């Protein structure tokens, strides 16, 4: 009887302990020491993985946000050391993508074009930006190891464009205070939906937390709440179609032999000057004019003229991903058109699956779990959510692009850099340019805006050549905008 009671107590305790391990602590930190060689220079750095609470107005803990924070050890003047705050997208996506494949001190094991290889794992990142800036990767609620802790908490406080921005701004205020980084030049970098997040955060931090930034970097940006519907939405896809057809060597010889960026400049002009007005005119466009446009679009995309005509010049991206290589028996990736997929049927108007995303998860998921457990000594039974449950997501009142513009107008130190891959069909590069034009139609802020394009897709850094170039672009952007000592933030007439 006594043994049975003891066994019951033991099993009960064991179950409770196991359950506790599946709930992250509200406030914790684990610190480890490492070294890395970047740009030929070897230096030591500290990695701090932790959780920091999200409180309500009464100070009650509602949730916890997990982060990983990397600081270079040999820095004496932290006040002048830039801090980069990094977010990914989704909106339910963790920060693993840029942490283990772009700016962080470790890279996942992939080939030079970004495809999975085995054994899975990680290696040093010789192109990390840790040589010029400290970095904190933030996982919003339900991504990474971040979780809601109070089951009665209102999900609307977290899962929406403006709610997300509001609680993260408060969270960042606490993080910056705890780590004594108020005097550091500060930067936000976001990828995909993360660009919506950081564009909104730029103004929210400025207006509600009185935290002013030196730079915002948008990697593969969304529409940032800037509307484009009807003819405009249809027309802006054309340069992406051309880039992808060029990559797959489907264009006619005179176009195929052209330099990609030179060709795209031509297609961009055609898109705005001829293609957009043609779609807008609808049936008022004469048959002769319509045929001329169809022929030119067919030339720029390699699609059949019948396909273009039957869709009234409005080719959806889903149809393009299915159609471009239909005769070859393949589909192409949504986020990166370099990736190939195989469908059950060659017929249809959209691919069966996202060829690129399945490839990426093939590599990233084992790498991040291995990395946190072995290198960062973060041992937990909480599942690392590469993608977490954050829906329904309230996308109403998205004014993030104009909010970023307002933050730049009010802060003469604030600069913007946009990075896009030419083969990204989800957040294509020409729409990223359109964002910038609409954010600053007068051109008064254009000297503080820059665009960088790369011969890859949504996560351009997965391709080694683009990783080298893109990290150097980030590095130069930080060096350029960190501001000289005693430089005044003011406009000159």
TrEMBL record:
One of its GO terms (molecular function) is serine-type carboxypeptidase activity. InterPro entries: AB_hydrolase_fold, Peptidase_S10. Residues 1-20 form the signal peptide. The keyword Protease applies. SUPFAM superfamilies: alpha/beta-Hydrolases. It comes from the Bacteria. GO terms for biological process: proteolysis. Keywords: Carboxypeptidase, Glycoprotein, Hydrolase, Protease, Signal. This is Peptidase S10 serine carboxypeptidase.
